[in-house]
Structure formats: structure tokens, C-alpha cells
Amino acid sequence: MVMMPREVIRRRLTFDDYKQLPDDQDYEIVEGVLYVSPRPRARHQIIGTHLAIRLFEHVHQTGLGLVVQDTDLIVSDRDVYISPDIMVFLGEKVASVPLDGWIHTIPDLVVEVLSPSTRDYDLTTKQRIYAELGVGHYWIADADGRTLIECVLGTDSRYQERKVEAPAVFVPALFPQLRIDLGRVFA
What is the number of alpha carbons within 13 Å of residue 126 lying toward its C-beta? Predict the structure, then answer.
């Protein structure tokens, strides 16, 4: 993860800047600062796909909401323009998610799969931003540790963490009827 601090760019970046970025790498702007990382590797994508499929099956089969992968989340009033690996929108929020436009709705769940280049960024900066935005649930899939960290936002606006290691079955707080076999996710 390469960070381009404001001192180098000489100004806080905006949504107009974000729209001008090329598609050759993963670009995100957090609080006006540009973060650049290489495109994810196969292992990252496979883990993300396993989780997205399980979420998609559960959320859509039960009519709970919408699951979206690798799409931009735009929070202009905070100069935050990021692309979570997976976002889940539940209930009434679904109607406010444009399928052909920029997503401005804060998701109920965000899932990030750690990569070597984004590990610290996902565990610190993104976790802080998601908590500040009010994302109630944040899952962090760690391929190297074969663990899933479930973060649930408390009344103090801080995440309470629970770590589940493969090959255990993960039962999320948000979806107590869902069972995710982490042995298969991290195979």
C-alpha cells in the first residue's frame, strides 16, 4: 500500500480527483489522502468469492437485502472514496443503493480480505473509517492466519472483535442462522 500524503500532492483530494483515476490499480481516497495498491492476487479473490457466495445465498434467499462486491463507496462529506471487497445492505437501505451509479449509502456489513500490501491499512485506517461511518459490522478475512475477525460496532462507536480460526464454523452476530465453514473458505 502506497500512500500519497497531502504534502506531496499539495492539497486534499476530492471526488472529482477520484473520478479521474485510471483503472490500472486499486485507488482509494481517505480523508483527502490517496492510497494506491496493486490489484488483488488469486488467493485474495477466491476467499472473497467464497464469502460473497455464502452471503449472497443467505441474504438473497431470505430476502434480507443486497450483497455487492468490489464497488466504490462514496462518502463525499468525509472525502472518503473506497472500494470494500464486499458490502451488504439490509432492509430499507437496499432501495437507496443505485445499481448503475455511485453508492453513497453506508452498508450494514463490510468485508475486507487482507493482502500483504493492504494488511495494516485494512486493520487500522479502514477499520477506524468504517467505525466512524457507522458500519455496524466489519469482517476481516486473514488468509495467512486462516482467521476471520468479526468486528461489531458498540454503543461507544468502537468495534468489539471476535476472532474465529479455520476450520471452525463461523456464525456471525448479524446473521445467527448463517453458517460459514472457514475450513472451506481458507482451503
Answer: 26
CATH no. for residue 156?
3.90.1570.10
Structural domain contains residue 91: yes
Digitized pLDDT (tens) for each residue of the chain, 187 residues in all: 555 544 456 688 889 999 999 888 889 999 888 898 888 899 999 999 999 999 999 999 899 999 999 999 999 888 899 999 999 999 999 999 999 999 999 999 999 999 988 899 999 999 999 999 999 999 999 999 999 999 999 999 999 999 999 999 999 999 999 999 999 999 9
Q: Which domain holds residue 128?
A: 40-71+83-185
Q: What is the pTM of this model?
A: 0.93
**Quick check: 103 and 88 in contact, CB under 8 A?**
no
Q: What are the residues whose beta carbons fall under 8 Å from the beta carbon of 47, sequence distance 6 or more?
A: 113, 141, 143, 185, 186
